[in-house]
Every structure is written in C-alpha cells, then in structure tokens.
C-alpha cells in the first residue's frame, strides 16, 4: 500500500475514530447535525420537486385551484418550521458543539504531550506529528463532521431522487450513474496529487516555521541584531519560497487538466447535454412524460448529479482526512517506552541512598554512547558537584537520575529499590530540580515557585523560599508581592525579570518543595558573585540531610562540595573532595588551576 493512500477499511476506521470522539464528547451536536441535514434535503425535495410537479401537472390536467392552494399552504408552513430549526442549529447547537470538541481535543493533545517520553521530542517524525496535530486537529474534526453532514444530505437526496426516477423515468438513472463513476476515478487521482503536493510543501514549510520562530521570538532577537547571521536566513527564506512555488506549479498543471476533463466531459456533456435532449424527446416527440415530470426530472438530475459529485469529493475527502487523522491517532496512541511498572510502589519518605550501577546511555539507538559504565553511590546529606567539559554527559546523567530518560543498560536504585519499580510521578515529585535552561511560566510568582496550583496560596512558605534564593529585595519592591504576574502574557501589569532574577525564582522552587533529593544544573550561572555566595550558604543549611547534586562550571563553587565528580566522554574519570583531587593532580586540578590563574590575571590587571 502506498503511504499516501489508505485502504477503504482504514479510511472508515480513521473517520469513525473522529465520529466516535464527537459522539462521546458532543453527542447532541452530532445527532442534531445529522438529523437537520436530512430534514433540509427533505424540505428542498418537497418544495422543488413534488410541489413543482404537482403545480405543472395541475395546470396540464386541470386540478381544482383550492386543492393546489391547500398544498402550497402546507408546504409554506413546513418551510417555516425548517427556518426556526435553522436558526436554533446555526446560532446555538453548532457553535457550542464545535467549541466543546475543540476544547476537548486540545486538552487531550496537551495531556498527551505532557505525559509523552522526553525522548519522543528528539524524534523529528513524532515531533512533526505533534506540531501538526496541535495545529490542525480541530480542522480535521470539522472536516469529518462536515463529511458526515454531507453524507446525510446526499443520502437523503439520493434516496428521494432515485425513488423519483424509478417512479417516473428509470433510464435517467443510467446517465447519472455513468457520469458518477467517471468523475469518481478522476477526483481520486486529483486528490492523490493534492496530498503529494501538500506533503512536499509541508517539508519546506518546516523550514519556514523555523524561520518564522527565528524572526518573531524574543529568544533570538539579541543575536540577530548583534551578528550578521540574519542574511543567511533571509537567503534561506527566499530559497524556500522559490522551492514552494516550484512545487505548486509542478502539481497544479496536472490538476488543471484532470479537473477540466472531469468537469467538461464527464459532468456537463453527459448530464447537461445528452440527458436534456433525451427528456425533451420523450416529452415532445414520444409524449410519455408530463410537463411537470419533464421539468422536475431535469431538476432532479441536476440535484442527483450534484450530490453524487459531493459523494465523489466526499470519498476522496475521507481518504485525505484519513491520512491526517492517522497522524493524530499515531500521536495519541504512541506508547511510552518509559513506563511505570504495574505493581509500582510508592516512593519512600526518607532518603537512605541512591546508587547508579554500570549505567550506559544513548539518546537514540544509532547515536553515540553518551554515558559509559557510570557507577556512583550517594549518601544522605552528601553534596556532590559534577564538573567536566561541555558535552561530557553531566546533564544527561542528572536526567537519568530524574527518570526523564531510562538508561540503555545498568540501573539506578533509590534506597535499594530500582527506580523503575517506583511510582513515576511520585518519584519525580520527590526530586527538586533547577534546570540549566529553566523556564518561568506566565503565572504568578507564587505559582512559579510552588509549581502546584493547589498549594499556591501558602504565601508565607513562598516568601521564605524566595528570600532564601536571594529574591527577597526584589520581592519587597513588588506592590503585589508573591501575587505579581510573571510576563505580560495574561496580565498587562506582569513583570519581566532579568536572567539572574529569573534564576532565583527557579531556585526558590527547591526551597518550597519538601523532597528527597536536590538536583541543580548550573544553578548560579546567571547570578552575581554575592548572590552566588549567599545561595551556596543557604543551600548547605537548607538541604540538611537531603543530598544535593549540582553541576557547575565555576570551580570556586564546587570546592565546597563533599565530593566532586570529574566527567569526561560520559565517564566519571576522577572523584573525591577538592583537596583529594588537587593532590592527585589530574584533569580536575588542571581545570581548577586554569580557572584560578585566569581569575588571578583578571584580579591582577584590574
Ligand atoms: N536530546 C538529545 N538528543 C541527542 N543528543 C543529545 C541530546 N541532549 C544532549 N545530547 C548530546 O549528549 C552529549 C552530552 O550532553 P550533556 O548535555 O549531557 O552534556 P553536559 O556535560 O551537560 O554539557 P554542558 O556542560 O555543555 O552543559 C552531547 O554531546 C549532546 O550533544
């Protein structure tokens, strides 16, 4: 099976998935949509076919005026009822039903994104599916519901019109059928080309999305102003546009010719030309059709043709929809590799020890080994510093300890229990962490510190945590204190924080959360020396018997650790206290002396 074409059962399964979703979360909307679509077509059939045939035949065969007037009156009353239902549907049922579904699908996608393995973000196919799903899922829901609406309408038209043809002129059905089959074949080919074109465009669009991010996001604004790399991206932007234009041109020529043959030969010529001649002949020459039948048969053939055309586009639309829905399903159904054991147990409340045994790790199976045979035991209250060159695996090691990734081999045990046997959320909640690329959220300072909506009201605890992290004086200057909003996303009065201030807020999380273990990845990289000194002091006091693992490139800070791990190429190559490592005069001593000598040079020249 080609990747851009699904079997009929797969198409049905995928479209059924969305319909089931709609029925589960917005049943009233879906049912009303189907029933109302059928009613609309019944109303049109009565008004445009039955009424017109009746009026023409009445004139031709001399039916009484009062009978005709009564029939017209009843039809007008029925139309009035349909108009009332029309308002109810479009003003209330549809907008409410749609909103409910959009909200639900977005929530499901966000929940899935949050619970998915971090490793999945490294997989570009999965990440693309996620970006697409987040942007387009609601359009696919709309498209599926529109298809269902069209099916209901078309099936109603087909049943009423076919019954009418069978009753009045069976031969007319042959004309319609031939046109239908030929149009179907052409539209399937056209849609396949359309999908191929969009897939090719999507690939290019990824580049455009990156460029858009680059020019819009504040993150890149400074570098773009300070360096001339922007010229490379302007060039990329114009190249991408040229490539996209080329793709559109290549495919649209084929699409034009296919559309022309379909519209002209298989629709207009057969139904608008040949069938009209046939009806006129049967009415005027043979006299087997009444005037009312001739007019309404022509009218019905247009309607039947139109709806069969809808059906042809519908089948291909369902086909196309299916391709996209499958992306959505594969995103939602993606199983995590990092799973919680069925009989997982709660995390102990006391830290006794953490051991890492023969740990190895690769981000992807074909990728390089990032960690190699790492062995480590951490005792209660121990302060461990991890140092090493860029890319030596320090952050990766802490990600494994936090169980954001699972080791490729080897194991990690907390109090002797393998961490994959512990309840996952519970385990992560019992670790306080500040990441190298920590993020603050568009929420109040309180919420940013406790990171738990329910606990955000404990002002005393939050104030204390912020003071310990060195944010105290800034906090005093804020009129709304801990209730101040961070960023202006949701609040015009929100504040923007400097890099160091933001880092202090992130660090405050550690003081506000009673955990078993503290992990800090370059916690003081943005802090001034006074703030760093203050933080180190407070951290030592506050951690008490909680072990602290911290990564730092400032070796003056790591000196105070009980144990320093020196990493190189994914291995711990040296470990011991600062004095011990200086004594063995290895890589750590070399690095420390280099930093110290630089410091002395700077001090000496100032
Ligand atoms: N998500 C990822 N996917 C693939 N490779 C990754 C990923 N994250 C990190 N790496 C690679 O793993 C190696 C170790 O990265 P890691 O961030 O652990 O190093 P580090 O010692 O913390 O470096 P730094 O001092 O620069 O922060 C690097 O070569 C990096 O390119």
Class from secondary-structure proportions: alpha/beta
Shape, principal axes of CA atoms: elongated
Cα-to-Cα separation, first versus last residue = 72 Å
| CATH H level, superfamily name of the largest domain | P-loop containing nucleotide triphosphate hydrolases
Tell me the series of helices and strands, N- to C-terminal.
Answer: HHHHHHHHEEEHEEHEHHHHEHEHEEHH
Low-confidence stretches: 600-606
**CATH architecture annotation of the largest domain:** 3-Layer(aba) Sandwich
Identify the CATH class of the largest domain: Alpha Beta
- Radius of gyration, CA atoms, in whole angstroms: 35 Å
Bound molecules: adenosine-5'-triphosphate
Number of domains: 4
* CATH fold description of the largest domain: Rossmann fold
- How much strand? 5-15%
Can you give the helix content as a percent range? 55-70%
Protein name: ABC transporter ATP-binding protein
Keywords: ATP-binding, Membrane, Nucleotide-binding, Transmembrane, Transmembrane helix
Main location: membrane
Membrane topology: Multi-pass membrane protein
How does the SSE layout of this entry go?
Layout: H1 8-25, H2 27-61, H3 65-115, H4 124-168, H5 171-216, H6 218-226, H7 229-286, H8 291-333, E1 354-362, E2 369-378, E3 383-388, H9 394-401, E4 409-414, E5 417-418, H10 424-429, E6 431-434, H11 445-450, H12 459-468, H13 472-476, H14 499-512, E7 517-521, H15 529-543, E8 548-551, H16 555-558, E9 563-568, E10 571-576, H17 578-584, H18 587-605
Parallel strand pairs: 3-8, 3-9, 6-7, 7-8
Antiparallel strand pairs: 1-2, 1-4, 4-5, 9-10
Helix pairs in contact: 1-2, 1-4, 1-8, 2-3, 2-4, 2-8, 3-4, 4-8, 5-7, 5-8, 7-8, 12-14, 17-18
Adenosine-5'-triphosphate binds next to helix 9.
GO molecular function: ATP binding
Transmembrane segments: 29-56, 68-90, 150-167, 173-190, 264-285
Organism: Paenibacillus septentrionalis
């Amino acid at each position: 099976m080609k990747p851009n074409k699904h079997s009929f059962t797969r198409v049905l399964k995928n479209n059924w998935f969305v319909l089931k979703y709609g029925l589960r979360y917005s049943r009233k909307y879906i049912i009303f949509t189907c029933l109302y679509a059928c009613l609309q077509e019944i109303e049109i059939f009565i008004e445009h076919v039955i009424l017109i045939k009746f009026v023409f035949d009445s004139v031709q065969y001399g039916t009484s005026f009062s009978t005709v007037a009564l029939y017209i009156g009843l039809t007008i009353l029925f139309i009035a009822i349909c108009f009332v239902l029309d308002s109810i549907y479009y003003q209330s049922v549809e907008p409410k039903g749609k909103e409910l579904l959009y909200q639900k699908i977005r929530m499901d996608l966000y929940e899935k994104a949050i619970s998915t393995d971090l490793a999945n973000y490294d997989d570009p196919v999965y990440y693309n599916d996620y970006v697409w799903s987040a942007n387009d899922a609601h359009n696919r829901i709309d498209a599926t519901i529109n298809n269902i609406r069209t099916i209901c309408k078309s099936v109603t038209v087909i049943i009423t019109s076919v019954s009418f043809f069978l009753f009045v002129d069976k031969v007319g059905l042959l004309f319609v059928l031939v046109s239908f089959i030929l149009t179907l074949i052409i539209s399937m080919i056209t849609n396949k080309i359309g999908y191929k074109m969009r897939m090719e465009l999507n690939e290019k669009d990824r580049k455009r999305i990156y460029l858009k991010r680059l020019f819009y996001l504040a993150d890149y604004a400074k570098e773009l102003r300070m360096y001339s790399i922007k010229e490379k991206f302007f060039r990329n932007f114009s190249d991408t546009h040229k490539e996209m234009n080329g793709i559109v041109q290549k495919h649209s020529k084929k699409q034009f010719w296919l559309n022309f043959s379909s519209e002209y030969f298989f629709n207009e010529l057969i139904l608008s030309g040949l069938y009209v001649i046939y009806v006129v002949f049967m009415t005027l020459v043979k006299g087997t059709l009444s005037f009312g039948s001739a007019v309404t048969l022509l009218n019905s053939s247009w309607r039947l043709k139109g709806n069969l055309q809808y059906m042809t586009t519908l089948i291909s639309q369902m086909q196309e929809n299916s391709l996209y829905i499958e992306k959505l399903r594969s995103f939602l159904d993606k199983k995590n590799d990092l799973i919680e054991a069925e009989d997982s147990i709660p995390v102990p409340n006391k830290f006794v020890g953490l051991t890492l045994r023969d740990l190895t790790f690769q981000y992807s199976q074909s990728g390089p080994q990032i960690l190699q045979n790492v062995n480590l035991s951490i005792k209660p209250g121990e302060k461990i510093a991890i140092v090493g060159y860029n890319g030596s695996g320090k952050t990766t090691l802490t990600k494994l300890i936090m169980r954001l990734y699972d080791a490729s081999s080897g194991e990690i045990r907390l109090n002797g229990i393998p961490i994959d046997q512990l309840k996952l959320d519970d385990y992560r909640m019992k670790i306080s962490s500040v990441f190298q690329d920590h993020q603050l959220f568009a929420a109040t300072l309180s919420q940013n510190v406790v990171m738990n909506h329910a606990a955000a009201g404990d002002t005393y605890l939050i104030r204390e945590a912020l003071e310990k992290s060195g944010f105290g004086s800034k906090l005093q200057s804020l009129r709304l204190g801990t209730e101040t909003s961070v960023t202006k996303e949701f609040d015009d009065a929100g504040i923007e924080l400097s890099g160091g201030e933001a880092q202090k807020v992130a660090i405050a999380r550690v003081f506000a959360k009673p955990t078993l273990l503290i992990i800090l990845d370059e916690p003081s990289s943005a802090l001034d020396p006074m703030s760093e000194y203050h933080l180190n002091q407070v951290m030592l006091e506050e951690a008490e018997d909680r072990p602290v693992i911290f990564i730092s490139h400032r070796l003056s800070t790591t000196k105070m650790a009980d144990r320093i791990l020196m990493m190189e190429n994914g291995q711990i190559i040296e470990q011991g206290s600062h004095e011990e490592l200086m004594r063995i005069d290895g890589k750590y001593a070399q690095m420390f002396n280099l930093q110290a000598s630089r410091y002395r040079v700077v001090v000496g020249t100032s």
